[in-house]
Automatic annotation (TrEMBL):
Entry GO terms, CC: nuclear lamina
Spans annotated as Disordered: 1-39
Gene3D superfamilies per the UniProt record, alphabetical: Lamin Tail domain
Protein's name according to its UniProt entry: LTD domain-containing protein
Length: 106
């Protein structure tokens, strides 16, 4: 889940995946996420296990300041992982930024 503190952007991602694998036993996996956007910043990619997320500026000519935006990952049974985008981060038109889970604090 992505929480946004800048008024001009609103991001969410939703995707439902159910999978069953039989490899020396049985594993069931269910992944749920949500995706929608208002404005120019979108979630262009979200790695299925939550290792990274890619935010993109879809506008053809306008820069977007995403300083202070918060990315929040919620994992059932664990605490939230929150990452605040540092001051001065501006996405140029048609550019993207990849945020790794390893940069976040739990």
């Amino acid at each position: 889940m992505v929480e946004q503190v800048v008024k001009t952007h609103s991001l969410q991602q939703q995707e439902n995946t159910d999978s069953n694998r039989n490899v020396r036993g049985e594993t069931q996996t269910k992944t749920t996420s949500q995706k929608s956007s208002k404005g120019n910043i979108t979630i262009s990619e979200c790695e299925a296990t939550g290792k990274f997320i890619v935010l993109a500026n879809s506008h053809s000519s306008k820069e977007e300041d995403i300083s202070g935006c918060k990315l929040k990952q919620k994992v059932e049974g664990r605490g939230d992982i929150v990452y605040t985008i540092p001051s001065g981060v501006v996405l140029k038109p048609k550019h993207a930024v990849k945020v790794s889970k390893f940069n976040c604090q739990q």
